[in-house]
């Protein structure tokens, strides 16, 4: 075999040889003629579907009928697949189903004789045919009218072919909901199919069978689905979800407020963690519909209280200035001065010293003296102060006080404006804003509704706080002015009903024009010119709204309770629905009805409470806490807004209690909920706060009436300096001997119980008898001596071995649940857990089960403080133990899928409850409550309207509508269950989307 070059040389040599021999004619074959000799085999359609009927055609040059066959190449051979005849015109046709693989075909006509003629064999040129798989696409969208638009694309357009949109039923079968016939590659299905007809349903496009080709479907369009959010906590919180079906975007919400949007998987976002309990939810949005994920909770614990400091880790409670005489309130001016009101009627200024900047503050300096005008008995006095928002331009300062009634002894209450001249408040600048009607013209029962009269009975629940809203209107807090000794207590003080009467300026928060004192047009009961008392009312049903704060369009009220509860109330300043917020007093206190007897009795003076106590008749508190042995006196606060506070704490609400002696912080949601309440300072450090305000340095300051000082809450970020680690207790011994010992005093005021009084009267001095030690438990082993003394350092007091106190203080870290605390001691024992009194009485065996207390504790650290008082008995001993005897109950809410409301507005619901300690479901059922609130959104923010409270049921149906704010309402449900031990658990919230809602987590 030669290569190509040799072959070429051979051909050329041959041609030259022939030329040398003489003239030669070289005839080469005509390629076109050769091609024409082999007929072309064509197929139709050109691009067939697999299985579709395919027509093969060719034309022989012979114009006779002759046998033909269709052959298929198989390897190196041809196999006959069809036989037939050509027409008289030589046309050959065969029909086959389009194969799914490339197949080479040809037509063969063998040698043939007919009519004495010989016809040579004819073989067509091979043709390769192959059917292609069908491709069907479906694109869906939702038009503004809520109809489903479906666009179907097909890879093989065929005239008259049926194209359908189909939905899959629960049984897996497909049903047609829209159909068209088309010959185009794109078909629009615009039948009037509503989203409600296909919500949550898989969809597909179906193209019918055609000429042997099977019907084909598009990929199934699955409705969107979304998982429970996962929460990964660290320096930041990362939220992530997984989705199924068609999803375009995922929106993330925290506590009902949108925080992030992600447009591509993996779906996630990162946010800064905040102290408190939060709920996270995500909405996956697809082309047609969206779906809300289940809710997940996340809690970030606040720093625990330092045992030695009494202040939460990272905080410092610093004294700015002392020497104040019963300070009641304070406000900072833009120039850096702090103006403080003193109960007796003076205003003093504390200013940063020039040489030390803001690090040092001047001694108090009197800048206004109203002592001749102010009645300071009881709760009275100079009680409130506010600086005008335009103080830098006008120098206005507003004061609230009780006006001395003079000889007739009929005090009244006023708000007056004074002007700051840079040095003092000018007495001559006095301008009366509120309370022009005084004395008998205001105090007589028939006169209390006189416009601009602020009546007062007795010496308590007086006028109190002042503040400005964002529009520059003045807010005034007024107590019910009706606390006095009456037979039957509250039941006999019918004047307390004034808190419910909109024409009486008592038990209210007022909103007035700071220049005229008239009510402003935005007030819910405004009657036109603002001169009526009702026109001034912003909120009613309050016992003593002693302190409050404005934050955005929210007003946060601290309402001082009567016998059982202190409450924080939250309301919107911009409801604008014409109804006045009613917080229930005197018909309700906290979440409970007050002791007014049978208010349904026709002769009861309290029959009006039937309406107040009815569902929707009053607002429940956002937060309430019970009285202790010291009662309670809530001091509403302000917010940790300084950038000096860490992100996790900034914006938390600060409040305190004057009698229980604490300062706490809480998370206040944009919807008005209060959660994650934690201690910031206990009774060893809080100092009896009566006012919180933002100081000139941006830190939150407090006014302590107990120590007569200004304190500030500064963030240091430093850890605790506790001498004893968590789980141990600092033990100290204290001297109760000496000439002033309570055990040497005579108690004659109550001879029957004089044996108790030495112990009741004893307060352990701060000084210890010896260096404190860290102990593993709260225990004083039985002793008749002096436990701190030694042979080298004996007890040299007048009564060695007697008259001493022992104190313990430490932190424990526990799981949530009910703890049984057992108190034992030879004499008197006091025990506090988290500043709440647990035991303050004798603790010897005589008192039996009175020494056993069940206490519900949350997960985390808790401060225990105990004292044992040893008098003259022979032996001293004490022991306090605790054990977990039960866990908290559980409760969850079951709602329809994705929380949608039925067309008639009904929402079926049920609760699943259980208790690890064996409380049966029936018992738990009687201690459940379902709280339904309507969240009214304005943009991304909302305020909450209580809708209903359903108690003692595990299932039911309630109705919702969006008449109040069409399209802008979302229902939020929360369930609470309490077990027999008193432990309560509140469920994660569930969000319910009203028809047409475009707000919050319900935005489509």
UniProtKB/TrEMBL annotation:
<dbReference type="Pfam" id="PF07995">
    <property type="entry name" value="GSDH"/>
</dbReference>
<feature type="domain" description="Glucose/Sorbosone dehydrogenase">
    <location>
        <begin position="326"/>
        <end position="589"/>
    </location>
</feature>
<dbReference type="InterPro" id="IPR011042">
    <property type="entry name" value="6-blade_b-propeller_TolB-like"/>
</dbReference>
<protein>
    <submittedName>
        <fullName>Glucose / Sorbosone dehydrogenase</fullName>
    </submittedName>
</protein>
<dbReference type="InterPro" id="IPR011041">
    <property type="entry name" value="Quinoprot_gluc/sorb_DH_b-prop"/>
</dbReference>
<dbReference type="GO" id="GO:0005975">
    <property type="term" value="P:carbohydrate metabolic process"/>
</dbReference>
<feature type="region of interest" description="Disordered">
    <location>
        <begin position="777"/>
        <end position="808"/>
    </location>
</feature>
<dbReference type="InterPro" id="IPR013783">
    <property type="entry name" value="Ig-like_fold"/>
</dbReference>
<feature type="compositionally biased region" description="Basic and acidic residues">
    <location>
        <begin position="790"/>
        <end position="802"/>
    </location>
</feature>
<dbReference type="InterPro" id="IPR012938">
    <property type="entry name" value="Glc/Sorbosone_DH"/>
</dbReference>
């Amino acid at each position: 075999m030669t290569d190509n070059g040799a072959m070429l040389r051979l051909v050329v040599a041959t041609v030259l040889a022939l030329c040398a021999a003489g003239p030669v004619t070289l005839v080469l074959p005509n390629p076109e003629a050769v091609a024409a000799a082999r007929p072309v085999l064509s197929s139709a359609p050109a691009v067939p579907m697999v299985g579709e009927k395919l027509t093969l055609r060719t034309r022989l040059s012979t114009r006779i009928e002759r046998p033909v066959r269709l052959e298929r190449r198989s390897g190196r051979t041809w196999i006959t697949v069809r036989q037939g005849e050509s027409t008289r015109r030589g046309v050959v046709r065969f029909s086959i189903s389009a194969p799914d693989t490339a197949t080479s075909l040809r037509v063969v006509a063998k040698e043939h004789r007919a009519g004495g003629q010989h016809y040579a064999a004819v073989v067509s040129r091979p043709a390769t045919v192959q059917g292609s798989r069908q491709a069907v696409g479906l694109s869906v969208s939702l038009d503004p009218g809520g109809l489903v638009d479906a666009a179907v694309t097909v890879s093989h357009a065929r005239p008259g072919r049926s194209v359908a949109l189909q939905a899959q039923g629960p049984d897996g079968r497909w049903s047609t909901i829209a159909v068209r016939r088309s010959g185009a590659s794109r078909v629009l299905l615009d039948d009037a199919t509503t989203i409600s007809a296909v919500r949550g349903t898989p969809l597909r496009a179906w193209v019918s069978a055609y000429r042997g080709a099977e019907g084909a479907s598009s990929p199934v369009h699955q409705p969107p689905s979304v998982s429970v959010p996962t929460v990964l906590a660290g320096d930041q919180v990362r939220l992530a979800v997984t989705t199924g079906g068609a999803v375009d975007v995922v929106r993330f919400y925290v506590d009902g407020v949108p925080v992030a949007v992600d447009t591509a998987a993996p779906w996630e976002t990162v946010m800064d963690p905040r102290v408190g309990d939060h709920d996270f939810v995500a909405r996956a949005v697809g082309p047609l519909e969206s779906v809300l994920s289940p809710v997940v909770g996340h809690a970030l614990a606040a720093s625990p209280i330092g045992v030695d400091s009494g202040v939460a880790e990272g905080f410092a409670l610093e004294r700015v200035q002392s020497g104040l005489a019963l300070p009641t309130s304070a406000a900072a001016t833009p120039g850096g001065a702090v103006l403080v009101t003193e109960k007796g009627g003076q205003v003093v200024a504390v200013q940063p010293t020039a040489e030390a900047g803001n690090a040092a503050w001047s001694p108090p300096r009197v800048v206004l003296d109203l002592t001749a005008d102010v009645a300071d008995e009881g709760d009275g006095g100079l009680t409130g102060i506010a600086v005008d928002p335009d103080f830098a331009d006008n120098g206005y300062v507003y004061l609230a006080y009780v006006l001395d009634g003079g000889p007739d002894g009929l005090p009244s209450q006023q708000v007056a404006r004074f002007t700051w001249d840079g040095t003092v408040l000018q007495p001559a600048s006095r301008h009366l804003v509120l309370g022009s009607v005084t004395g008998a013209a205001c105090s007589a029962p028939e006169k209390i509704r006189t416009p601009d009269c602020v009546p007062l009975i007795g010496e308590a629940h007086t006028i109190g706080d002042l503040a400005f809203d964002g529009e520059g209107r003045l807010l005034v807090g007024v107590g019910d002015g009706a606390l006095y000794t009456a037979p039957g207590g509250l039941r006999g003080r019918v004047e307390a009903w004034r808190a419910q009467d909109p024409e009486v300026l008592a038990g209210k928060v007022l909103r007035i024009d700071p220049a005229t004192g008239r009510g402003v047009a935005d007030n819910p009961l405004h009657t036109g010119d603002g001169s009526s008392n009702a026109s001034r009312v912003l909120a009613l049903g309050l016992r003593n709204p002693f302190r409050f704060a404005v934050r955005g369009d929210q007003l946060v009220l601290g309402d001082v309770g009567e016998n059982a509860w202190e409450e924080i109330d939250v309301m919107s300043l911009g409801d604008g629905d014409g109804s006045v917020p009613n917080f229930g007093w005197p018909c309700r206190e906290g979440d409970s009805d007050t002791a007014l007897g049978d208010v349904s009795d026709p002769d009861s003076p309290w029959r009006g409470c039937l309406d107040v106590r009815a569902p929707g008749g009053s607002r429940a508190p956002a937060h309430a806490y019970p009285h202790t042995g010291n009662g309670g006196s809530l001091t509403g606060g302000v917010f940790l807004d300084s950038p000096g506070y860490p992100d996790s704490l900034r914006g938390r609400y600060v409040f305190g209690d004057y009698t229980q002696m604490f300062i706490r912080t809480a998370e206040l949601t944009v919807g008005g909920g209060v959660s994650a309440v934690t201690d910031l300072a206990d009774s060893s450090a809080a100092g009896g706060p009566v006012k919180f305000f933002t100081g000139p340095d941006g830190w939150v300051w407090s006014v302590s009436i107990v120590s007569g000082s200004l304190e500030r809450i500064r963030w240091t970020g430093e850890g605790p300096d506790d001498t004893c680690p968590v789980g141990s207790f600092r033990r100290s011994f204290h001297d109760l001997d000496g000439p002033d010992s309570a055990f040497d005093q005579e108690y004659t005021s109550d001879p029957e119980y004089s044996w108790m009084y030495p112990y009741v009267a004893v307060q352990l001095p701060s000084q210890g008898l010896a260096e404190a030690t860290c102990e593993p438990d709260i225990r004083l082993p039985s002793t008749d001596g002096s436990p701190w003394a030694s042979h080298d350092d004996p007890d040299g007091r007048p009564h060695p071995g007697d008259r001493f106190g022992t104190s313990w203080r430490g932190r424990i870290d526990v799981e949530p649940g009910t703890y049984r605390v057992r108190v034992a001691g030879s004499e008197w024992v006091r025990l506090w857990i988290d500043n709440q009194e647990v035991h303050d009485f004798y603790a010897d065996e005589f008192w039996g089960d009175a020494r056993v207390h069940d206490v519900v504790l949350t997960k985390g650290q808790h401060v225990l403080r105990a004292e044992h008082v040893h008098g003259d008995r022979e032996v001293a001993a004490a022991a306090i133990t605790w054990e977990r005897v039960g866990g908290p109950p559980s409760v969850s809410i079951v709602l329809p899928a994705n929380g949608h409301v039925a067309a008639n507005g009904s929402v079926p619901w049920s609760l699943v409850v259980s208790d690890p300690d064996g409380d049966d479901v029936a018992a738990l059922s009687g201690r459940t409550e379902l709280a339904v609130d309507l969240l009214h959104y304005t943009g991304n923010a909302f305020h909450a309207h209580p809708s209903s409270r359903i108690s003692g049921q595990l299932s039911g149906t309630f109705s919702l509508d969006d008449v109040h704010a069409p399209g802008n309402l979302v229902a939020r449900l929360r369930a609470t269950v309490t077990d027999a031990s008193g432990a309560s658990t509140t469920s994660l919230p569930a969000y319910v989307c009203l028809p047409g809602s475009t707000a919050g987590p319900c935005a489509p």
